[in-house]
């Protein structure tokens, strides 16, 4: 029975010292310890969240970069295409102009040739007429030595004139 | 809701497991108590006859003391005004008495192990079975004289040592938390942090809920106070060896603390459950009585559980050691020592377990008192 009878002295001292221990530990141990643990847990959570956010931001940035790259590539293609069409246009224009110019030149040359030909022909005609006159003179001179022949000739000429 | 159900089932499982374990341990205690009570008459008879013999033959028999296991064991687990080291070497402890005449303060060395009386300022005192009694004018113990014993006994001194160790350990840990802000724990800090987190995450949070933070200092203090006292009790030499947590006075105070904390924090649902239980009106008188008994019996069970477990452990270890002296042979020593080692390891487990159970059940009772019903 003595074993299960609480003695007043021990109850008193246990009560006093347990309350003191509770107060002391609460102020000097549990508050800083639990506070520090809580703070550390929060900072770890925060760091993890931040890492997660950074990861998301990173993927976003990568996607953006990809987009930019694609856009740049498309733009380059566009520019190249434009340049090509421009080049083609210029070439065509130049060709057309050259053709026109060439045609003009040919025309001019033709006219010139025609003119030259005409001049040359006129010259040839002159030459021929003078030559034929000379020949005719000589022939006439020779033929007019004979009277009959002269008459025949005149008659012939007259005939021609009449016919004309 | 799902989460809550899982929690409840988890708590129930834990409770069932520990109930079985406690039942198992208490069966052992009962068995031991029976064998103890069986041996007591024999021993007391032997003791009386031995005293009678020594009384007849005077000092002739003094050299050879008769070994009485029950007396030795009871002396070891009970409180004392001396701190016995070995043989006839012991440390006297201060005696503080509150008597009708006033306060008395003197060293227990004056009793010379109960062989001499001490004449104090107000009365003459005698140590009878390690209890301070007033000696009347006729030289006989005066049982009617009221004297309250507030002495620093062995248990009180051992408790002070434990408190000193606890303060030393946890204030140094708190300082290292202040020094290493936001860094990983180190040394003693990393040894106790998982324990503190265990109390917080697996004892307080599931049982109390979101209001757990308010009760953390009490739960942690209870846990480490019981744990350190249990562990120091297992150490057979000086700073330990006292059966502090196996003393009903200490467990009474601890359980009373839980009773106060639980009932001070009980909300309207808790009190409604006690005074207006959800039963037909003619059952009210009965149910109110049952509920009030329940309020008292919960901490009462806490008190008895811790006391019985720790005392049983000490009794078993001491009995096994006593075997050597009962058989009066060294041949039994290896067997005894082997069993004692086994029991000590088991007691190490029990030291943690009982601290944990006390804390868990306290958290559970607090949780029941602060639970919100919707």
UniProtKB/TrEMBL annotation, chain A:
Pfam families: ATP-synt_B. Signal peptide: none annotated. The keyword GTP-binding does not apply. It is a single-pass membrane protein. One of its GO terms (molecular function) is proton-transporting ATPase activity, rotational mechanism. Its main location: membrane. Keywords: ATP synthesis, Cell membrane, CF(0), Coiled coil, Hydrogen ion transport, Ion transport, Membrane, Transmembrane, Transmembrane helix, Transport. InterPro entries: ATP_synth_B-like_membr_sf (IPR028987), ATP_synth_b/b'su_bac/chlpt (IPR002146), ATP_synth_F0_bsu_bac (IPR005864), ATP_synthase_B_chain (IPR050059). The chain crosses the membrane at residues 6-25. Gene3D superfamilies: F1F0 ATP synthase subunit B, membrane domain. Residues 44-89 form a coiled coil. It comes from the Bacteria. The keyword Transferase does not apply. It is found in: Cell membrane; Endomembrane system. One of its GO terms (cellular component) is endomembrane system. F-type ATPases have 2 components, F(1) - the catalytic core - and F(0) - the membrane proton channel. F(1) has five subunits: alpha(3), beta(3), gamma(1), delta(1), epsilon(1). F(0) has three main subunits: a(1), b(2) and c(10-14). The alpha and beta chains form an alternating ring which encloses part of the gamma chain. F(1) is attached to F(0) by a central stalk formed by the gamma and epsilon chains, while a peripheral stalk is formed by the delta and b chains. F-type ATPases have 2 components, F(1) - the catalytic core - and F(0) - the membrane proton channel. F(1) has five subunits: alpha(3), beta(3), gamma(1), delta(1), epsilon(1). F(0) has four main subunits: a(1), b(2) and c(10-14). The alpha and beta chains form an alternating ring which encloses part of the gamma chain. F(1) is attached to F(0) by a central stalk formed by the gamma and epsilon chains, while a peripheral stalk is formed by the delta and b chains. PANTHER family: ATP SYNTHASE SUBUNIT B, ATP SYNTHASE SUBUNIT B', CHLOROPLASTIC. F(1)F(0) ATP synthase produces ATP from ADP in the presence of a proton or sodium gradient. F-type ATPases consist of two structural domains, F(1) containing the extramembraneous catalytic core and F(0) containing the membrane proton channel, linked together by a central stalk and a peripheral stalk. During catalysis, ATP synthesis in the catalytic domain of F(1) is coupled via a rotary mechanism of the central stalk subunits to proton translocation. Belongs to the ATPase B chain family. This is ATP synthase subunit b. It comes from Pedobacter changchengzhani. The lineage of its organism: Bacteria, Pseudomonadati, Bacteroidota, Sphingobacteriia, Sphingobacteriales.
Automatic annotation (TrEMBL), chain B:
The keyword Protease does not apply. InterPro entries: ATP_synth_F0_asu, ATP_synth_F0_asu_bact/mt, F0_ATP_A_sf. It is a multi-pass membrane protein. SUPFAM superfamilies: F1F0 ATP synthase subunit A. One of its GO terms (molecular function) is proton-transporting ATP synthase activity, rotational mechanism. Residues 1-33 form the signal peptide. It is found in: Cell membrane; Membrane. Keywords: ATP synthesis, Cell membrane, CF(0), Hydrogen ion transport, Ion transport, Membrane, Signal, Transmembrane, Transmembrane helix, Transport. The chain crosses the membrane at residues 156-177, 215-238, 244-262, 274-296, 316-341, 348-370. GO terms for cellular component: plasma membrane; proton-transporting ATP synthase complex. Belongs to the ATPase A chain family. PANTHER family: ATP SYNTHASE SUBUNIT A (PTHR11410:SF0). Key component of the proton channel; it plays a direct role in the translocation of protons across the membrane. This is ATP synthase subunit a. It comes from Pedobacter changchengzhani. The gene is atpB.
């Amino acid at each position: 029975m003595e074993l299960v009878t609480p003695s007043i002295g021990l109850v008193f001292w246990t009560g006093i010292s347990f309350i003191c221990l509770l107060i002391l530990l609460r102020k000097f141990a549990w508050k800083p310890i639990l506070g520090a643990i809580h703070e550390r847990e929060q900072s770890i959570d925060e760091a993890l969240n931040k890492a997660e956010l950074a990861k998301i931001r990173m993927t976003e940035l990568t996607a953006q970069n990809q987009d930019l790259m694609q856009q740049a590539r498309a733009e380059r293609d566009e520019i190249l295409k434009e340049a090509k069409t421009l080049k083609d246009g210029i070439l065509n224009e130049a060709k057309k102009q050259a053709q026109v110019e060439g045609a003009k030149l040919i025309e001019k040359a033709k006219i010139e040739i025609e003119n030259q030909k005409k001049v040359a022909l006129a010259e040839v005609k002159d030459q021929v007429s003078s030559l034929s006159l000379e020949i005719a003179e000589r022939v006439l001179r020779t033929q007019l030595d004979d009277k009959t022949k002269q008459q025949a000739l005149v008659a012939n000429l007259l005939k021609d004139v009449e016919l004309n | 809701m799902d989460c809550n159900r899982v929690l409840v089932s988890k708590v129930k499982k834990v409770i069932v497991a520990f109930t079985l374990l406690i039942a198992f341990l208490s069966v052992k205690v009962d068995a031991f108590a029976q064998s103890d009570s069986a041996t007591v008459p024999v021993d007391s008879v032997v003791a009386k006859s031995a005293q009678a013999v020594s009384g007849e033959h005077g000092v002739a028999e003094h050299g050879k003391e008769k070994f009485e296991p029950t007396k030795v064991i009871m002396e070891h687990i009970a409180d004392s005004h001396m701190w016995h080291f070995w043989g006839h070497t012991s440390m006297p402890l201060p005696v503080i008495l509150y008597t009708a005449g006033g306060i008395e303060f003197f060293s227990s060395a004056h009793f010379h192990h109960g062989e001499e009386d001490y004449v104090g300022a107000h009365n003459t005192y005698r140590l009878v079975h390690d209890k301070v009694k007033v000696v009347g004018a006729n030289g006989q113990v005066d049982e009617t004289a009221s004297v309250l014993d507030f002495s620093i006994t062995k248990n009180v001194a051992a408790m002070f040592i434990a408190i000193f160790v606890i303060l030393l350990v946890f204030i140094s840990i708190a300082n290292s938390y202040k020094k290493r802000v936001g860094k990983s724990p180190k040394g003693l800090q990393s040894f106790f942090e998982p324990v503190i987190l265990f109390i917080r995450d697996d004892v307080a949070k599931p049982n109390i809920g979101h209001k757990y933070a308010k009760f953390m200092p009490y739960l942690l203090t209870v846990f480490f106070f019981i744990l350190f006292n249990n562990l120091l009790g297992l150490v057979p030499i000086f700073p330990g060896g006292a059966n502090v947590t196996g003393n009903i006075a200490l467990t009474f105070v601890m359980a009373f603390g839980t009773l106060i904390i639980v009932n001070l924090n009980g909300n309207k649902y808790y009190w409604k459950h006690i005074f207006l239980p959800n039963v037909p009106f003619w059952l009210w008188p009965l149910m109110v009585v049952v509920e009030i008994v329940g309020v008292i019996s919960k901490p009462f069970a806490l008190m008895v559980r811790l006391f019985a477990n720790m005392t049983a452990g000490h009794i078993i270890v001491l009995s096994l050691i006593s075997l050597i002296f009962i058989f009066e042979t060294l041949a039994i020593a290896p067997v005894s020592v082997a069993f004692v080692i086994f029991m000590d390891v088991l007691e190490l487990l029990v030291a943690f377990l009982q601290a944990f159970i006390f804390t868990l059940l306290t958290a559970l009772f607090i949780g029941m008192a602060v639970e919100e019903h919707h």
